[in-house]
Amino acid sequence: MKVLANDGISKSGILALEKGGFEVITTKVAQEQVANFVNENNVDVVLVRSATKVRKDIIDACPGLKIIGRGGVGMDNIDVDYAKSKGIHVINTPASSSESVAELVFGHLFSGVRFLHDSNRNMPLEGDSNFDGLKKAYANGTELRGKTLGIVGIGRIGQATAKMALGLGMKVIAADSFIPQVDVKVEFFDGQSITTTIVSQSLESLFKEADFITLHVPAQDGYIIGEKELAIMKDGVGIVNCARGGVIDEVALVKALDSGKVAFAGLDVFESEPKPEMAILMHTKISLTPHIGAATGEAQDRIGTELASQIISLLS
């Protein structure tokens, strides 16, 4: 059987699939050519990440398709229910990238509170001629310890983020309409651990209480954070989005950054991805990454082997 990993797959995933008797194709096929390629090469399994979309047109055009797999959590680039209605298995790897995304969240938080994103832009330009000026400009940093982190969506990634926040000595609050409360276990290197219970509260109360807000939700029909929500937040709040583009109103965000209502933002995903708006890309108060939340070697290894395990289990 043949597997098309159109957005790539780790070496460990390839080896696991090949050991299970599958042929793995890693040729990058253009979106409009996916259906033809699948049919011409008798592909049984299509694996994607966030770039390739598997919509109704591809599903209808490829009657031999047995599995559609998403390397990661969100499956908004796949018509999941329609695929299932056609007897196609749809799989993903919800647990594999949690820690990687959570670490990136804190990369953006540390960058924001210590101005690292802007300092790294300006030190090469002015470090030798305006050292004292830059030192003064970036001198008013903020500690994360003791501050309140509001987590919108306390699923696997939200929980991984909560663990890191607790380790830093932050207060953690959460809002999740599907998870009323969750026990979060923070494990240490020597085998010891502590467990704490986080009880979900209303979004409105989270927005009012949090010093920093991080989003961990799937794609939405509308904004979770817009003008109204920004207005009730604390002055100087920091906002991080490593979830999905389109959950924050970017026009309202820029306005809030310009006014000082929001101190900084950290964005890994964007409304108009893969061509983010220039107002976002050039803003000095935004820490930017190009949708790399799950892009660590460790996460990609876990994703590849987990996909391989599921595929072998379903088709062997």
UniProtKB/TrEMBL annotation:
<dbReference type="InterPro" id="IPR050857">
    <property type="entry name" value="D-2-hydroxyacid_DH"/>
</dbReference>
<dbReference type="InterPro" id="IPR006140">
    <property type="entry name" value="D-isomer_DH_NAD-bd"/>
</dbReference>
<dbReference type="Pfam" id="PF02826">
    <property type="entry name" value="2-Hacid_dh_C"/>
</dbReference>
<feature type="domain" description="D-isomer specific 2-hydroxyacid dehydrogenase NAD-binding">
    <location>
        <begin position="107"/>
        <end position="293"/>
    </location>
</feature>
<comment type="similarity">
    <text>Belongs to the D-isomer specific 2-hydroxyacid dehydrogenase family.</text>
</comment>
<dbReference type="InterPro" id="IPR006139">
    <property type="entry name" value="D-isomer_2_OHA_DH_cat_dom"/>
</dbReference>
<keyword id="KW-0560">Oxidoreductase</keyword>
<keyword id="KW-0520">NAD</keyword>
<protein>
    <submittedName>
        <fullName>3-phosphoglycerate dehydrogenase</fullName>
    </submittedName>
</protein>
<feature type="domain" description="D-isomer specific 2-hydroxyacid dehydrogenase catalytic">
    <location>
        <begin position="8"/>
        <end position="314"/>
    </location>
</feature>
<dbReference type="InterPro" id="IPR036291">
    <property type="entry name" value="NAD(P)-bd_dom_sf"/>
</dbReference>
<dbReference type="Pfam" id="PF00389">
    <property type="entry name" value="2-Hacid_dh"/>
</dbReference>
